[in-house]
Amino acid sequence: MYDFTPFYARLTESGLGHWLETLPARMRHWQQHQQHGELKKWQRSIAQLPRLTPSSVDISSQVRIGEASDANDGEKARIQGLLSQLMPWRKGPFDLFGVHIDTEWRSDWKWDRVFPHISDLSGRRVLDIGCGSGYHLWRMKGAGADLVVGIDPTQLFMTQFQAIKQYVPADTARDVELLPLGIEDMQPLQAFDTVFTMGVLYHRRSPIDFLQQCLDQLKPGGELVLETLVIDGDEQRVLVPGERYAQMGNVWFIPSTKALCHWLERLGMQNIRVVDENVTSLEEQRQTEWMQGQSLADFLDPSDRSLTVEGYPAPKRAVVIATKPR
């Protein structure tokens, strides 16, 4: 059983005590009724990890916990073997006592594109909606955030996050948490200084409603950082793919950047700007030792890499930043 009590205390410290009106009951319901059938097996893998203390931690320029010299060869082999039982590892990379977890996505490249354009995170309360295994949570904390909360209903990702967190020094780890929740499980807190949502919008059946749910978590004057798939075109252009897009079956709406900005404007956001557009490369998303299934190379037309196998434009991503009115 997960004990979220220390996190509840941290919420009170950070001025988010009103979340405790609903969160503990929501988490009890999850504990009792919504746990994944494999969760106990994944937890056993974490419990068997060697007890090690890192001599150094770097979460500002990467996510590296400990030095290779902090663990002997047997301990490193145990880490490698046990964490491989938590595959696929999609978001990262992580370095744990010299064990390099080479994830499917080079999430550090995404962070490098996003970070120069956002408001200084120092002292801010941050929410990451759809955070995956939590790679960016650590980078947000490394950038100076006071409290970082990630939500993602995929319990394998939560387990991967916990595997990393157990090695992070307590004074840092207490400020970072991942909850197995979706945005629909959140009350409108209107309390976070920055809300990130990266790689989520196109998975939602109702993108406008989803954007409103994101805004409902922001305090007045707060900043939304949105990264998503886009296409070329004017403010009326939106791709609604068929059964699959790049072999993904849960892609509903892919707007142009102009359409996306128009949506945010209709929702009342201000200072809306597109700060980056980037065609996803085969070097950024690929099969690795830690993610052995199909990846981007398998999802593109082999005779024309500018198209998916279904004939749609190949994945292109944009970062849009906007401010909630005061």
TrEMBL record:
A GO BP annotation: tRNA wobble uridine modification
EC number: 2.5.1.-
Recorded catalytic activity of this chain's protein: carboxy-S-adenosyl-L-methionine + 5-hydroxyuridine(34) in tRNA = 5-carboxymethoxyuridine(34) in tRNA + S-adenosyl-L-homocysteine + H(+)
Chain's role: Catalyzes carboxymethyl transfer from carboxy-S-adenosyl-L-methionine (Cx-SAM) to 5-hydroxyuridine (ho5U) to form 5-carboxymethoxyuridine (cmo5U) at position 34 in tRNAs.
InterPro entries to which the protein is assigned, alphabetical: CmoB, Mo5U34_MeTrfas-like, SAM-dependent_MTases_sf
UniProtKB keywords: Transferase, tRNA processing
Segments crossing the lipid bilayer: none
NCBIfam families, per database record: PRK15068.1 (NF011650), tRNA 5-methoxyuridine(34)/uridine 5-oxyacetic acid(34) synthase CmoB (TIGR00452)
Keyword Ribonucleoprotein recorded: no
The protein's assembly and partners: Homotetramer.
Protein name: tRNA U34 carboxymethyltransferase
Binding, carboxy-S-adenosyl-L-methionine: 91, 105, 110, 130, 152-154, 183-184, 198, 202, 317
The organism of origin for this protein: Aliidiomarina taiwanensis
Single GO molecular function: transferase activity, transferring alkyl or aryl (other than methyl) groups
Family, per entry: Belongs to the class I-like SAM-binding methyltransferase superfamily. CmoB family.
Pfam families noted in UniProt: Methyltransf_9
Claim: Transferase is one of the keywords in the record: yes
